[in-house]
Each structure stands twice: as structure tokens, then as C-alpha cells.
Amino acid sequence: MKPLPSQRRTRVALLVPSSNTVMENDLHAGLPKDRFTVHADRMFLVETTRACELAMIEHHAPAAAKDLGTLNPDVLVFGCTSAGSLFGLAYDTQVCSSLGELAGCPTIGVVSSVSEALQRRKAAKVAIITPYNEDLTQSVAAAVATHTGVVCAHGMGITDNVALADPTPEQIVEFARERLRGQFFDCLFASCTNFRAVEAMPLLEQAFGVPVVTSNSSVLEAIKLRFPAHSVRS
What we know:
alpha/beta, four-stranded parallel β-sheet, 2 domains, Rossmann fold, 8 strands
């Protein structure tokens, strides 16, 4: 007698910088546990700079993607916003395509998910806040500007990747209030998968009265749209 086909939860493979302490928690909290499981592998990263992120992509991400491929994932998330933006929005797609081939599954990129989330909200004038240095802040802004108008982009100047998670939600809101005073925008994007921006979302929406998009909320949205509630894995 043949075994009955088994129904299983959707497997989300997550590639995350080694010093990231936020993204896994946000995905575990934001995805229904009866429908999804999240499985992470880490790409070595200590400093949040262009050179170090390139090294992460070129030298550490491929092996991690191969590792994750052994669990037969349904989707791979490349979990770094700024790294995906280094050479424009198309670079995120390129990196994800290469890593997806190694993992043997479709991919989701963070900055691409953000761009799509902003377009779904018909955002025309976006303000951006990040915990990054100026180089990476402007890199993300340029990628977002591919399809959406960007009013301004301000970063906190943090280059120690583990420290990107240090600002509290209240401190994120205070930074946004200070830097965005006098600016007019119809949507706010809080960038970085290692930023406590998901926790800050309701506070930011209350403070500015506009929709707020974050790196991790955009990935959660992209996963749920790709795998709607009625879909069944077998």
C-alpha cells in the first residue's frame, strides 16, 4: 500500500548575516507556525560596510545557500537589505538568482520586497531612515528610487553590524522625528533586517500619520503573498 501524501508546512530558508540578532525573531513571530517553518544559516559579517558586505556575498553566502538547500526549502530569503542594494535594485535580483540556484528553490530579496511593498501602497514620496553609514544609506535610497520617489534618507552611522540592533523602538522614533522634521512624505521606510523597526512600526505610524514599511515586514508580506493560506505543500 502506497503511503498517503503528507501535508507539511512551508519551509523558509533564511540567509542572514552572522551578527544579525533581529530578523530570525521577526520571521518566527510574524509567520503562522501552523503553516511555516523558518530555517537559518549565517553569512559571516562583522562590519556593516560596502567592502565587508561584498565579501559576505562573494565568499560566505554561497556555502550557506548550499547548506540550506539540503533541507529542500520552498523559498530562500537573502536577508540583508543594504547588501542587496550595493549596485542598484537589479543587483538584488542577480544575487538572489545565483543563491537560489545553489539552494534549489525560488528566492526573495529584501530590498526588492521593499520596493514591491512601496508600490503596492502607491507611495510617491518616501522618507528613509536606517542605522547605516552614509554610503549604505544612500545605496538603499538609490535602489528604492528605481520605482519610487525618495524625499530624503538619513542613517544613524552605525558600522558594527551587531550594534545595528541596539537602538530601541523609542530611539528609532526619536531619530526619525529629529531627522524628518519639516519633510513631507506619504510613506516611511525603515531599512535594515537587524533594526528593531518592526517593533517601532506602530509608534512610527502614530508619530507621522503615514504607512510604514520595514525590511522585515516587507519580507513577511512577500512570503505570505507567495504562499497564501489556502496553499498546501506536499
